[in-house]
Amino acid sequence: MIAISNLTKRYGPTEVLRGASLEVRRGETAVVIGASGGGKSTLLRCVNALETFDSGTIEVGGIGLHPGPHSGEDEADRKRLRRRVGMVFQQFHLFPHFTIRQNVMSGPIYALGLSVEEAACRAKALLERVGLADKADARPETLSGGQQQRVAIARALANEPEAILFDEPTSALDPRMTREVLAVMADLAASGQTMMVVSHAMGFVRRSASRVHVMVDGRIIESGTPEQVLDSPQSPQTRALLAETGD
C-alpha cells in the first residue's frame, strides 16, 4: 500500500530524512518509533504530500509522488492521494464553528460529493464507532482532548481511506484520554485498516502493530514484528531507545 525508498529531505542545511525506506502492506499496522527529532513526523507528512522531499520515491496505492517542489502537473495526483489516505495529527484540527457531526460530514460532502443525507448517515455510524454518538450536536470546545481526537479519527475515516496516517495522536493527552484513543486505534487495527503510526505508546505497539520500524537520525535502522524489535532488538541504538522508554 505504501512504499518509501531512499527518501531524503532537507530544511536548509539540515538533513532531516537521510535515505529512509520502508513498506506498509495492505491491512498492516506499521508503527514507527524513535527519539524526538528523528524525522518521524516529517516522513508522515511527505507520505501525505504535505511536505516536499529532495530525492527518493514514495508510492501510495499506485500513486507516485515526485521529489522537488510541487508543480501544477502533480496537483491531480496529490488530490487523489489525499482522498485515499487520511491523517490524524497531534493536534486535533477540528473546525471550531462546526458541530461534531458537521466536522465528520465535511469530507464526504466536499471531497467525495456525497449528499447531506448520505454524509449524515456515515457520520452517525462513525461517531457510534468511536463512542461519541451522544456528542453529535456538540461543539469541539465542549469536548475533552481525548474526545476531540476520537472525532478526528472519525473524520479521517469518513472518506473511507485505504490507509490512515497517525502522527503521535496521543502526545497531547493525559493517560485516561490516551487509553480512550488507543482503544479506538486498536479496534481499527483489528479490523484490518491499513495504518502507519508514529507513536511512543509501547503498549499499543506491542499489542496492535504488525510491523515496527525504528527511526534514528532520519533513517530506518531496524524493522520487524513487535516481538523481534521489542524483545530481541539487533541494533544498539534500538536497545538504547527501548531502555529510555522502559520497554
Structure notes:
By secondary structure, the chain is α/β, with parallel strands linked by helices. It has one domain (23-40, 91-245): 3-Layer(aba) Sandwich (Rossmann fold), CATH 3.40.50.300. The protein is 39% helix and 25% strand. The strands form two sheets. It has a six-stranded mixed beta sheet with strand order 6-7-8-3-9-10, sandwiched between helices. The protein has a four-stranded antiparallel beta sheet with strand order 2-1-4-5. Strand 9 (211-216) and strand 10 (219-224) form a beta hairpin. Helix 4 (116-129) packs across helix 5 and helix 5 packs parallel to helix 6.
Topology (SSEs and partners):
Layout lengths: L1 E10 L2 E11 L4 E5 L6 H8 L7 E6 L2 E3 L9 H10 E4 L11 H11 L5 H14 L15 H13 L5 E5 L7 H17 L2 E5 L3 H7 L2 E6 L2 E6 L1 H6 L4 H10 L2
Parallel strand pairs: 3-8, 3-9, 6-7, 7-8
Antiparallel strand pairs: 1-2, 1-4, 4-5, 9-10
Count of domains: 1
Any idea what the CATH superfamily is called? P-loop containing nucleotide triphosphate hydrolases
Give the helices and strands as they follow along the chain. Answer: EEEHEEHEHHHEHEHEEHH
Class of secondary structure makeup? alpha/beta
**Helical content class:** 25-40%
| Shape by Cα distribution | globular
Which spans have pLDDT < 50 for at least 5 consecutive residues? none
**What is the class in the CATH system?**
Alpha Beta
Count of separate DSSP helical elements = 9
